[in-house]
Design brief:
The chain is built from seven helices and nine strands, in the order βαβαββαββαβββααα. It is an alpha/beta fold and 175 residues long. A five-stranded mixed β-sheet has the order 3-5-9-8-7. A two-stranded parallel sheet has the order 1-2. The chain has a two-stranded parallel ribbon with strand order 4-6. The N and C termini lie far apart (42 Å).
Amino acid sequence: KRDNIQLTIFDIDEKKRKDARDEGFNVVNDLKTLFLDKTIIIGCSGQDVVGLDELRNCDRNVYFVNATSKLRELKYSEFLKSTDQPKRINGIGTEYKLKGGRGITIRLLADGFPVNFFGNSESIPDLEIQFIPGLLLSAAAYLIDRKIEKISIIPIPEELEATLTKSIELNDEAQ
């Protein structure tokens, strides 16, 4: 919004759509409408929500980005049935043509995986990835609690990391 980018938001939660609208964002009430006139679609629901009905509303070439931590967002069996002519783009992902003769290209960044898990980068096991957001949250709370406001690189205290590690280990044992 600050950079004057045309952003359109959809959320299944009506209150979240209303809040976004109140903050001045362009909001649509259904996924089909979201796909009209878009160049980049970023999915971050954590669910398999985009299928053939939504893809049929693409009226131009589109980049599809998965911003979750799993291979989600697209209903992949529907996606693969509704596209053909896959073409690998090194370092980017795979490009597909939408069936139906309209010539629409869908570029699936990182082949639908979260972009930081793509290519030669090593993935982090699901249970371990929770450590990173936990550590970031703990570090933010540490800075707020101590009223540290300077803009610089601040080392995370070892006791924070140790406490979080112990907490995760105890949680894993309990499960």
